[in-house]
Amino acid sequence: MPEIVSRERVQDLLSHGAQLVDVLPEDEYAEQHIAGAVSIPLKELDQAAASQLDPARPIIVYCWDYQ
Amino acid sequence: MSPRAAWRLEAMGFEKVYEYAAGEEDWAAAGLPLEGSSASVPRIGDLVRTPVPLAELDETVADVNGRIDEEWDTVIVVNDQDVVLGRLYRTQLDEDPGATVKDVMQEGPSTFRPNVSASEMHEYMRKHDLETALVTTSEGVLVGLVTLEDVEKASGRSS
């Protein structure tokens, strides 16, 4: 079960090499996203899209808020 | 959306998956770095004036007056975690010097997050006839004070 993390924990994970994934639609990502995040919109999240992620490193997913 | 994404990644075999449930809104409200076409819009988090005069609940008005510069007409009341509890204005500072901050302060002042755009803040301050506005994190921790003058310059507007 994916762990829900706080902002502080996100910062800690990022400092240790975690990957940050923005799952909002691409146009929203282009407008604004957390610095360093890659865009994989939820609708496009399949095996091919996920292959760009390193399975050895933690992955943090986010959207706008508690959606 | 992010819960579904997290579960989907786990289903694909990724083992170290986390969900930042509070999301981009939480990150932006904390004034943390953003990228994108609108990320360069001037925001009040970039305009705050610090340090600002502070006071504690159990101080007296005389205590506060004894250590703030005349140029300031507002003092922010915080606790030991810098969480904003209230605000004092010059009119209250000119009152009974023996009164405590807690007794005379304006409780629960309006606060704004660092990611509010300068133009949005300018519109609000003009509408409500404000000279200054308090900026805090979403947890209520004081970031600083923005002035009407500063948001006007940043938003390219005038009064």
List the defining traits of the structure above.
heterodimer; A: 67 residues; alpha/beta; three-stranded parallel β-sheet; 3 helices; 28% helix; 21% strand; B: 159 residues; four-stranded mixed β-sheet; three-stranded mixed β-sheet; 7 helices; 9 strands; flat
Summarize, please.
With 67 residues, chain A is of the alpha/beta class.
What does this structure look like?
The complex is a heterodimer of chains A (67) and B (159). Chain A contains three helices and five strands. With 67 residues, chain A is an alpha/beta fold. Chain A has a three-stranded parallel sheet with strand order 4-2-5, with helices on one face. Chain A is globular and about 30 Å long. Chain A starts with a strand and ends in a 5-residue tail after the last strand. Chain B is an alpha/beta fold and 159 residues long. Chain B has seven helices and nine strands. In chain B, the strands form two sheets. Chain B has a four-stranded mixed sheet with strand order 3-4-5-6. In chain B, strands 7-8-9 form a three-stranded mixed sheet. The N and C termini of chain B lie far apart (42 Å). Classes of the chains: A alpha/beta (67), B alpha/beta (159). The interface between A and B is large, with 43 and 36 residues. Strand 5 (59-62) of chain A pairs parallel with strand 1 (17-19) of chain B, so a sheet runs across the interface.
Topology at a glance:
The complex is a heterodimer of chains A (67) and B (159).
Chain A lengths: L2 E2 L2 H9 L3 E4 L3 H6 L1 E2 L3 E2 L7 H4 L8 E4 L5
Parallel strand pairs in A: 2-4, 2-5
Chain B lengths: L1 H10 L5 E3 L3 H7 L4 E2 L18 E2 L5 H5 L8 E5 L5 E6 H4 L7 H4 L1 E2 L3 E2 L5 H10 L4 E5 L5 E6 H8 L4
Parallel strand pairs in B: 3-4, 7-8
Antiparallel strand pairs in B: 4-5, 5-6, 8-9
Helix pairs in contact in B: 6-7
